[in-house]
Give the backbone structure.
Amino acid sequence: MAKMWEGRTSGNTDVIADDFNSSIRFDSRMWREDITGSMAHAAMLGKQHIITEDEAQILIEALAGIISDIDAGILVFDPSCEDIHMFVEQVLTERIGDTGKKLHTARSRNDQVALDMRMYLRGQTKEIISLILGLASALTDKAEKYASAIMPGYTHMQRAQPVTFGHQLMAYVSMLLRDAERFTDSLARTNISPIGSCALAGTTYPTDRRFEAEKLGFDGICSNSIDGVSDRDFCLEFLSDCSILMMHLSRLSEEIVLWSSWEFGFIELSDAYTTGSSIMPQKKNPDMAELVRGKTGRVYGELMALLTTMKGLPLAYNKDMQEDKEGVFDCCDTVKMCLRIMTPMICTLTARTQNMRRAAGGGFINATDLADYLVLRGLPFRSAYKISGQVVADCISRGCVLEELPLDVYKSHCDLIDNGVFSAVDLNACLSRRTSEGGPSSENVLSQINSAREKIKNFN
């Protein structure tokens, strides 16, 4: 097949080189963006009288017909074409003849592919934001259900202080809302049109870049034509945002794996989101959570791959930049898949609140509250801290918890202690007193829930 770019060379490339150079097997997923962009370009060419208005209309109608035929499955992609741009131009020329050859006036594949990528990521980013908010809503609903369910909070994977399951879940909602904000912020930098930058130096034709950008829903145009074709910061920012999001999903997945184990027994996952063992009949494996955790490394790798590709490239466009697409496309698919599996998994999990409460009863997670009680009795905090530690050591030697230690033993450690110590170390009281903003008291958790729902509503 003749190459549309042959002229300076014969175009007779080796078949292996053709396959190595070709990108249509993956960039064909941007066909709708490519054709939509071409329709806007044709309209601009006609408006500026670079081609006649009749020719522009012929191009637009023919391009609309290609969209319809691809949608209907009548037209399939030709793998022998170098890329999606050449495929569309080839089909267009076959259908309307020489007029089809005029479409590429005042543009290059360099600015065309940058345009396609920006349009594609604009749509993908909006879809991901919607999925993030769906998961945040699911976690918020679950947090409301368990706003008062006491569980141990952990630091260093050691039982630390009392929290509630609702409070723990709302921590992930905070992370996800930041993720949604990051993706929203990135849209401002993605939604800038490069078309009209051409190969790198613009064009001598009297184009109207702003007309074309506005027609395609962009907020503005790239101010420098070299940057317009060589910039992939928007891809890197997208991959970075996805990596942070996946880190959050991975942390939640790790806790789901731990919480659903026999050792913790804090939650029960629906059978719909677990698998069994091929040899051990008692097993109920949290495979969906494990896969989300595992796929996080895949997304990280795609970010590092593109950073590495871009770091040594001289301006402007280089063929190395073709390597942006497969990683970005795979990242889009992976992130959306993980969000789509995580949301119903959260919706259907059940908390084993008795197990959570039992775990909270051990580990002396109310020791800080004992120290705070002593501070209120007049001791400096560091002295109160030391006495509380000695009381904990005494309890360990006696095989009891703070709530069970006799008053006379308490008083042997500090004569300021009175009967009020037992209400001070009661877990329910410990939680209810944690009224500092953002803390785990039921009222605070409900306040966090209301705030999160308002933020989600405003996003929508």
